[in-house]
Structures are given as structure tokens and as C-alpha cells.
Amino acid sequence: MTGAVVITRPLAQAAPLAARVSALGRTVEVLPLLEIAPLPDQTALQAALARLHDYALVAFVSPNAVDAAFAHIRHWPAGVTAAVVGEGSRAALAAHGVADIVSPADSAHSDSEHLLQTLDLAALQGKPVLIIRGESGRELMGDGLRQAGALVEVVPAYRRSVPVLTPGLAATLRRLLAQQNDWIITSSEALRGLVGLLQQMDLQHPDAMQHNSVVAMQHQHLIVPHTRIAETANNLGFSKLTLTGSGDERLLAALQSCL
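Above: the chain sequence. Below: its structure as C-alpha cells.
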């Protein structure tokens, strides 16, 4: 029997993919492994967005960054280029009417390294650049732009957190681990958070020495879009991996090949 497809994206980004997976005839479980919340103090974000027209480039690190920023943006200023690392962020910007978008030339590789290779870095020397991201994250994009001589401002727009292990969440995880599923994992942070939740479950089990949810999870099949996530999975003891490249089309193609 074919198990479920477990979509672990934050809730706001899970629904469109869930609908497309359901259209393949697969059972879908939406299990957000990262919760996204606005920052309590949004002063810095609002101040930067009030000066959008001053920037030569505005880079969004994720669809969550796009959503958090456009909660405050009424009109995208003409002449300002937006940059994104992935297809989801490009689609989110396009939905807000932004037309001038730069993304990695090879859509199979959506990361900061490939975005930096695509950008005309020489043209950004001495120019102000804004990076909108979560409260924490990789510094590679900012460092690369600074090395090219850009005047980089990094502004946090949202906070990511692993959900609390409630009895309901623990019951869902136990139910999912009772069968073989295809887990779509689009974040290393989410995968580390999942392993942490399972470790908590095992510690709470009355017979913790015999009960190992982490081992059960390591035998599940993961579908991941990026080599960095695959490396995280390997380091955490996962061996049943399918690496797809970026974008929902590639994730769906991988699922179809599993049928």
C-alpha cells in the first residue's frame, strides 16, 4: 500500500503543493515543521520598506520574506530590481505584481551561491542593496554582495520556530511513523527540528530504551530539493533520499516516479 505524502512546509506555502499532490491520487498530510510569525518589533522592517525606491536591489530569501514584506508594501517602486533564490519566492513576488525579478539562471539550483553567480555584481558596486530574511539565516548572500562592493542592509522580517510537542502532534507523528510515507523536506532547519521532536517523544515514552521514533523516521523516504538538505539528512542518519532540484515540478515528478 502506498503511504501518504507528508508536506512539511510552513502552513502558508503548503496548500498549493498539497492540492497538486492530491491531484496525483496520493493521500496528503500537511505537517508544518516550522511556524512563521511576525517579529514583535517591526520598526526596522518598516523603516527599510519606506525607502524601497532608494535601493538598487531588494533580495528576498524565501516566500515567507515576501509575505512579511508585502504586509507593509502598497506599491512596488518602478526601477527597483527584486532578487530571489527559488521558484516559490518568484511566484510570490509575481503574485504581488513585481515584474523585474532576478533568480538563479539554473532553476534546479535555488540558493544564494547561484543567485550571486547570476547577478551583475559589478553594476552593484557602491549601490545600496536590501536583503529581507528571517531573524536568522545564512550570511553568504550578504557577504558575497559586500565583497562586490555593494552597500548591504540586512533586515529581519519574521521568526521561524519549531512547533511545540503537544500530545496531538505526538499522536500525529506516531501515526505517520506506523507506515512508510514520502516526506517532502524543504528546509534543513525543519528536518533538524523534526528529529528534535522525535527525541523528545522518545524521552517521554515509559520504555524509552525500547522505543526509538528517531530510528523509525530514519527508515522513511525523504524527498529534498537541495544538496544542502540532503547533506543534513545524511548527517542525521537518513539513507532513503531522493534529491530533486528546486521547484514544485521536480518534487511532483519525483513523487510520480515513486508510484
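Residues 50 and 73 are 8 Å apart (CA to CA).
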